[in-house]
Amino acid sequence: MKKSYLSLTELILSLVLAIGVMTVFGACPAKEDGTWMNCHNAQLLCFALASVTAILSGAAFFLNKRMLTASLSAVSAVLAVVCFLVPGILVRMCMMTDMHCYTHLQPFTRIVAAVVCVVSAVNAFISFTKKI
C-alpha cells in the first residue's frame, strides 16, 4: 500500500505548529494579577486549528483514498489560511510590538501555517488529478 509523503509532511508540519504555539513560540505569559493578555486567545485558537489540521492530515495519510485525501487536504489548506490570519488580524495581539507574541508567536505561526497551506494545496491538487 503506497502512502502519500505529502500527507505525512502535512501531518508533521501541523504537529510542529500545534506543539510550537503551546511551548517555545507561545503567547505572552500571564499578568501579575493572574489574568491573561489578549494574545493568549490567539495562541489557543492557533493550537485548536493546528490540532484539527493534524487530525485531518493523519486521516488522509492512513486512509489513503484518492478523493478523500484531496478533500481532507483542501480543508487542511483552508484551516492553515485561517491559522495564518489568527494572530493580529482575527484576534487582537498585545499593544506593544516588542512583546513575546509579536516577536515569537506571530512570525512562527505565519511561516509554518503558510508552508502547511502550500503543502496541503499541492497534496489536494495531486490527489485530485492523479489517475487511478
Task: Provide structural commentary.
With 132 residues, this protein is mainly alpha-helical. It has a domain at 38-129. The protein is 70% helix and 0% strand. It has 4 helices and no strands. Helix 2 runs antiparallel to helix 3. It is elongated, with a radius of gyration of 16 Å. The chain starts with a helix and ends with a helix.
Outline:
By secondary structure, the protein is an all-alpha fold.
Name the structural class.
Answer: mainly alpha
Give the % helix: over 70%
Overall, the morphology is elongated
Number of strands: 0
Strand content: under 5%
What is the rounded Rg? 16 Å
Element string (H = helix, E = strand): HHHH
Mean pLDDT: 92
Through-space gap between termini:
14 Å
| Tally of helical segments | 4
Largest β sheet strand count, sense and barrel closure:
none
Regions with pLDDT < 50 over 5+ consecutive residues? none
